[in-house]
Structure formats: C-alpha cells, structure tokens
Amino acid sequence: MSITFDLNKIKFATDETTFKRAVDLYERGKVTDVREISGDLTAVVIGTQLYHVFVSGHRFGDVECGCYVGQKGNLCKHAVALAIYFVMKGRPLSKEDKTQCHEVKCSSRREEVQEEDLAAVKKSITEAMSYIKPYRGPSRTWFANQDSLQEGCNRLSVIVSDFPVSRQTVEILVKLLLRLDKKLLGGVDDSNGIVGGFMSEVVQMLIEYARIDSAVITSFKLIGGRQTCFEWEEPLMNILDEAETSS
Fold first, then answer.
1. Within a domain: residue 216?
2. Which positions ≥6 away from 15 have C-beta within 8 Å?
3. Which of 88, 103, 132 is the last residue before a domain boundary?
C-alpha cells in the first residue's frame, strides 16, 4: 500500500513522550492484527488492554483509538505505533530512526555553504514555514493548528541545527526570524509559545555564532530598526553595537 506519510513525518508531528512510548510498543511487538482497508490502517495494539486502532493512510493525524487520549481526539501512542509499523513494514528501528530533534543546537562547524546547497536549504525552510499558519477556524480546530505550528518548528529545528557558522547561514537565520515575526503579527496564534520558543532558541544560537566567529556579527544589521513582536532582536543588536563601538 502507498501511504502519504513517512517516518520523518511521524517524528516531526509527534511529541517526544508519545513518540518514545510508541517506539516501545512497536519494538516489543505490541502492534498486532494489522490490516489495510481501502487505503486506511487498522490494528489491535496491546497496552493496559487491547485497543482497536485506526490510522488514515492518507493523512497522518487522522486517527481513532479507544484509549483515554484517543477518545479526546488526540494523537496517542497506540496510533503512532501503528503508523510506525506501516512505514517500517516491521523492520527494526535504527538509533537515528528513533532520534527526534525538537530543539535548536549549534553545530559549531565553520565553513562556507555551496550555492546549490543554499538553494536546497532555502527551499526546505519555505516548506517547513508552510506549517506555521494563522488560526482562523472554530475552537475545535485550535489544537490541530497548534500541532501544525509545532511540526513546522520541529522541521525548522532540524534544518538550522545542521547549519555551519558562516555569514551565509547568519543571513538566512536573521531573515527566518523576521519572517516568523511577520507571521506572528499576521495572525498566527502563538499563545502556547511554540513559535516564540523556537525563535528564542535561534537567537541563542546566533549569540553562540558570534562567539565562535565575530565576523558574522555584521549580518545582524539585516534586522535594522524594526520593531518586533516580543523584542527578540535586542541581544543581537547589543552585540552589534558593542562590536561597532570597539572597532
């Protein structure tokens, strides 16, 4: 069967605790009686009791499960375990398969990025940004919107954590922050602090970049005199001011 999601989609769209518990269920052989019906997936997953689980093969996140979490309409470990079973076809998970990236980390590498690689990075950022969208729907869809924000930030975290320290990547990161700031001002409901938290992590990574290579500081000028939604730019502007004062 051809399903519309892969393991990366599952990892990006699932919180850390749920994913780890789902992996445990999968690896212990708790996903049983697996069937495909009209492109959708069903199974009996063994937990504290037997749970009959449904996962749409067309849209990850469209699930049904009789457990407490599933009854509230949320993505549960049983549904995620079934989704993993289908994308892995019962094969063992590697250490990399089981590793998620939900936070920004500085690579500390110092190198330039090739033009063709820059184009690919910018494309992947644009794709991840599509998950960070305004919330204009009824209250019942708010949680789905927040899940989309989290998935977008998870995808962005993987991308930027692989960046080397260079003026090129600093420019990309500053422009990313400005794009996210514009989205927050344009209707993205970040009351859970998902997007703001990611932006703060990027700012901290840029501060680390400045410690590693002071030459990248001049790229902070791209922020200009813009007023931002929660003044995330202040520490970067302070570093720029200090660098210009001492030069």
1. yes
2. 150
3. 88
Whether residue 119 is found in the same domain as residue 239: yes
Residues 6+ apart with CB under 8 A from 230: 196
Q: Could you read off the pLDDT of 8-45 as tens digits, one per residue?
A: 999 999 999 999 999 999 999 999 999 988 889 999 99
Selected residue with higher pLDDT from 234 and 2: 234
Q: Is residue 110 part of a domain?
A: no
Domain assignment present for residue 11? The answer is yes
Q: Are residues 119 and 237 in the same domain?
A: yes
Indicate if the alpha-carbon torsion angle 228, 148, 47, 83 is positive or negative.
Answer: negative
pTM: 0.88
Q: Is residue 12 part of a domain?
A: yes
Kindly report the number of other CB atoms within 10 A of residue 64's CB atom. 17
Q: Kindly state whether residues 83 and 134 are assigned to the same domain.
A: no
Domain extent for 11: 7-88
Express each pLDDT in 185-235 by its tens digit.
999 999 999 999 999 999 999 999 999 999 999 999 999 888 899 999 999
